[in-house]
């Protein structure tokens, strides 16, 4: 399975060109173009940045043996803290990845521009990962018929060249 997944994670130039052209067309209708030359330069710069970002994401997925299966995935339900205590929870998981080499799932939490998270994670502060722990519990509960297991939380820092930090989820 790894070879199939690894080989299908590619940057499709033609698909990207089509999507980008559609986005630009929509943007042109929303934003008045002050200078055609400036607009062309800026749109080309944005296109290059997007291409680079997508290529980095694909390489990161290949490296981690994962691919996304859901984005902005809503989780809600009750989580048991003990026999007497239960809390209601609702939230949105930024991204859920399937990890094909061990048939498990990863909660991906985007942290853009938040250096405090990096420091807290490096220092082993558990308060910063409690949200993802609850997300993992809720996600598994929502999919308990499929026996899905979440084994880690990945904090992704897109503003720092896709740097990521993984934390094991143990229940």
Ranges where pLDDT stays below 50 over 5 or more residues in a row are 1-6
The succession of helices and strands, N to C, reads: HHHEEEHHEE
Strands, total number: 5
Q: Sheet bearing the most strands, described?
A: 5 strands, mixed
- Put simply, the count of helices is 5
Strand content: 25-35%
Using only C-alpha atoms, the radius of gyration works out to 19 Å
Mean pLDDT equals 76
SS content category: alpha+beta
The rough form would be described as: elongated
Strand order of the largest sheet: 1-2-3-4-5
Distance between the termini: 28 Å
Question: Can you put this structure into words, describing what you see?
Answer:
The chain is of the alpha+beta class and 171 residues long. The protein is built from five helices and five strands; from the N terminus they run αααβββααββ. The protein has a five-stranded mixed sheet. The protein starts with a helix and ends with a strand. The model is unreliable at 1-6 (pLDDT under 50).
């Amino acid at each position: 399975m790894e070879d199939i997944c690894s080989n299908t994670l590619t940057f499709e130039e033609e698909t990207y060109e089509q999507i980008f052209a559609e986005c630009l067309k929509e943007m042109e209708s929303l934003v008045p173009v002050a200078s055609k030359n400036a607009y062309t330069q800026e749109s080309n710069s944005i296109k290059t940045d997007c291409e680079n970002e997508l290529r980095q994401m694909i390489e990161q997925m290949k490296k981690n043996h994962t691919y996304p299966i859901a984005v902005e995935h809503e989780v809600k339900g009750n989580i048991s803290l003990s026999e007497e205590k239960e809390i209601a929870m609702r939230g949105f998981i930024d991204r859920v990845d399937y990890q094909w080499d061990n048939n498990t799932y990863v909660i991906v939490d985007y942290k853009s521009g938040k250096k405090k998270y990096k420091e807290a994670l490096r220092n082993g502060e558990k308060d910063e990962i409690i949200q993802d722990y609850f997300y993992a519990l809720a996600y598994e509960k929502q999919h308990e018929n499929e026996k899905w297991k979440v084994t880690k939380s990945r904090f992704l820092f897109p503003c720092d060249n896709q740097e990521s930090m993984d934390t094991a989820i143990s229940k």
